[in-house]
């Protein structure tokens, strides 16, 4: 146990991802005081709740915390009845996750979509700090979006604000696979732009390289891998141009595992210009910035911590 009590003003954040659960403790000054990750129990709801409780318990014990706010980011969103919907971690759907976490942890837990947590983190003290409108994208096991306006998350009456991944790929071409999505639609942005989607586009049969391995192959000069990354970047440019046409954010922040693909930050803005509405002003520069999340793949968990602290206020 820490010899220094950090009780006053500490915030615990939990990011419940498809492959990992991460917990963080931020001090009153926003500095990271503790962080751990564990694998997500695949397809097991009860084990997932237990894993979150164990992580938070470990943080409380090691730092000597007797009280701290708790926020959690999760795939999907809450219905009016408090049930999870639209989660790509489908074992969460239809379950009262917030209530079960509160019961397991013995205190209130603020819950929000993981992409909203990313948006809040990056708008608070990240790549979008000071920007009026931030659109945050998770490119990972799934694809999601979140919106922060003047530092506050925009949720919407249905909890769907920023739910960009389950719109159809715009300006679809014959080269865009029409894969069915778990949401019941097909050609969803998530299916084409997620890490598993990139891997499937490269090698449709099971057992091919994953997204990270494809990036390594491309860097080594593999032409097929380079072509796969080029198709992915072009699709991302199309998908984000829709966001610019609708929301016109100051900053678009990329998080998730695929946000580490450095070529996206030069290639995508160059490509999205052809799809952004500019009638009568062709050739004028676009002012939207595309940036990687300043806090990397831990930004969502930081946003969850900010969420819990804001709920107390």
Describe this structure in words.
The longest helix is centred in the C-terminal third of the chain and has 25 residues, at 223-247. This protein is 35% helix and 19% strand. Helix 6 crosses helix 7. The protein has 9 helices and 12 strands. It has 313 residues and is of the alpha/beta class. The chain has helices at 45-63, 97-105, 114-125, 189-193, 195-202, 211-219, 223-247, 264-272, 299-312; strands at 11-16, 20-26, 32-39, 69-74, 77-78, 84-85, 110-113, 133-139, 143-149, 152-153, 251-255, 289-292. Residues 1-6 have low confidence and may be disordered. The strands form 3 sheets. A 5-stranded mixed β-sheet has the order 3-2-1-4-7. The protein has a 5-stranded mixed β-sheet with strand order 10-9-8-11-12, sandwiched between helices. It has a two-stranded antiparallel ribbon with strand order 5-6.
What would the keywords be for this entry?
9 helices, 5-stranded mixed β-sheet, alpha/beta, globular, 313 residues, single chain
Summarize the helix and strand pattern as letters.
EEEHEEEHEHEEEHHHHEHEH
Strand content: 15-25%
Mean pLDDT: 92
Largest sheet: 5 strands, mixed
Separation, N- and C-terminal Cα atoms: 28 Å
- Read across the widest sheet, the strand sequence of neighbours is 3-2-1-4-7
The count of helical stretches stands at 9
The low-confidence parts are: 1-6
Roughly how much helix do the residues carry, as a percent range?
25-40%
Total number of strands:
12
Radius of gyration: 20 Å
* Secondary structure category: alpha/beta
Described by the principal axes of the CA atoms, the overall outline is globular
């Amino acid at each position: 146990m820490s010899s220094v009590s950090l009780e006053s003003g500490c915030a615990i954040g939990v990011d419940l991802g498809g492959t990992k659960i991460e917990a963080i403790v931020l001090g009153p000054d926003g500095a990271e005081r503790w962080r751990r990750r564990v694998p997500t129990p695949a397809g097991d709801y009860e084990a997932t709740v237990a894993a979150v409780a164990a992580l938070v318990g470990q943080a409380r014990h090691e730092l000597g915390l007797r009280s701290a706010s708790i926020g959690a980011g999760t795939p999907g969103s809450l219905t009016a009845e408090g049930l999870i919907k639209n989660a790509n971690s489908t074992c969460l759907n239809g379950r009262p996750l917030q209530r079960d976490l509160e019961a397991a942890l013995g205190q209130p837990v603020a819950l929000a979509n993981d992409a909203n947590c990313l948006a809040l983190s990056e708008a608070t003290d990240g790549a979008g700090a000071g920007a009026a409108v931030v659109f945050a994208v998770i490119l990972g096991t799934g694809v999601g979006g979140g919106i922060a306006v003047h530092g506050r998350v925009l949720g919407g009456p249905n909890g769907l604000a920023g739910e960009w991944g389950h719109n159809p790929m715009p300006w679809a071409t014959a080269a865009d696979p029409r894969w069915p999505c778990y949401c019941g639609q097909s050609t969803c942005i998530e299916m084409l732009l997620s890490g598993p989607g990139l891997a499937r586009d490269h090698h449709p049969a099971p057992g091919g390289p994953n997204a990270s391995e494809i990036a390594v192959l491309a860097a080594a000069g593999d032409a097929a891998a380079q072509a796969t990354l080029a198709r992915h970047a072009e699709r991302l440019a199309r998908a984000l141009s829709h966001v610019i046409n609708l929301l016109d954010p100051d900053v678009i922040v990329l998080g998730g595992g695929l946000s580490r693909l450095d070529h996206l930050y030069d290639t995508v803005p160059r490509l999205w210009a052809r799809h952004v509405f500019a009638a009568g002003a062709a050739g004028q520069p676009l002012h939207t910035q595309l940036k990687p999340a300043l806090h990397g793949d831990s930004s969502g968990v930081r946003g969850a911590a900010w969420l819990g602290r804001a709920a107390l206020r």
